[in-house]
Every structure is written in C-alpha cells, then in structure tokens.
C-alpha cells in the first residue's frame, strides 16, 4: 500500500467519528435524514454508519430518532477516570520503575477491556519496552485478568484465584514479553490496574520480588485514593 493511501476501513472509521460528532447538547436526537445532511453523506451511507454504531452500542434508535448509546457513556466515564487517575498515578509509577527498572503501565476499564492510560519506563536502560497509551489490551493480558477477577463478585475458577492472590501474570507471553498486574481500588471497587511489563526471562528470574514491589505500588496508590486493605502478593498465572 502506498504511503498516505486511505483504506476502506479508515473511511468507515472516519464516517463513524463524523456521525458521533453530530450529536451535542443542543442536538441530542437526530433522524437518519439529518445525519445524512449534516454529515454530508447519502442516506444509504448514513444508514450503514448508523447501523454499525447501533450494533456497537454507540447509538440508540427509537421512534425514528437516533441518540448516543450507553457505550458512549461507558467510554466517556473511562476517559474521565483515566485522565484523573493517570495524573495521580505518575509518582507511583515512577517509584515502581525506579525500584524494578522495568516498564510500568496503568490501565482503566473501558467497559469491555483494559485501556492503557499512562506508561513509565526506565530511561537508564538501553533497551526499553514501548507501550502506547490508548492501547486496548486483550483478555489474556494480566490487566484483563485482574479486572475480570474484581469486577464480578461471583468470579470463579482462574478469576477467583487471581482475586485471592491480588496479582496476575499474563496468560500467554508474546514475542518474549510478559507482564504482572495488580488492582488499584477506590472505596470498595477496582478503578485501575497497574502492571510491570518485562521480558519473560526478567519476570521468571524475579517474579516474587517484582510481585512484592508491584503490590506495594498498587496498594500505595489505592491508599491515596482512600482504600484501606491488603492483598496477598502470590503470583497466579491464568490457564486461559
């Protein structure tokens, strides 16, 4: 593909963003015709975009009008929470990086998966693991396991083991990269996950020490947010 070429997928994303941007406090409801006219699209194109957004929970349709769907509220809440938590997490991540000399990551739950909102790495290391903020993490990630364990009070099996342990390890390492993650609490609910990302060899060689420092960082951050509690630093690797 030529540099700068635009794929059909990109066109679809652009249309979806354009449609969502049509809604505002002054225009909370729109008909399909209004979406097409305001968005500069044909009725057929507007219908395809609106249908895809409805399927994703980003739009709701009733009585001939579209409104923003519940998924938008989830994403907005995650974005706001992530921005504030990312600011507060800075000192905790930096201390963790100084202790373990590995990359530290903060993630929040967006309603369907963990999303990275802040990353800190060790500038002293010649080779560093780079993780972009905004990355949506898979179900096999240590962070996803932590959220799954604490978002569902009836967690069983591997999730229950992670909940009891307080720390999870990535289910399947990829490209030699592994991770440990621990929950961050506010009041009685999980609001974020903090993780150490390193090579498989580094985690295998120092899992107990990494888990202890990670737990301390997560607990310190939780305490700043008003949580009083403790967690067992035993490491659990999901078999999922």
Which features does this protein show?
single chain, elongated, 7 helices, 6-stranded mixed sheet, disordered N terminus, alpha+beta, 240 residues, 2 domains, disordered C terminus, Arc Repressor Mutant, subunit A, Beta-Lactamase, two-stranded antiparallel ribbon, 20% strand
Furnish the topology, listing elements before pairings.
Elements: H1 8-21, H2 32-39, H3 43-55, E1 59-62, E2 65-68, H4 70-100, E3 103-109, E4 114-120, H5 142-151, H6 158-165, E5 167-169, E6 177-186, E7 189-199, H7 200-224, E8 235-237
Parallel strand pairs: 5-8
Antiparallel strand pairs: 1-2, 3-4, 3-7, 5-6, 6-7
Helix pairs in contact: 1-3, 2-3, 4-7, 5-6
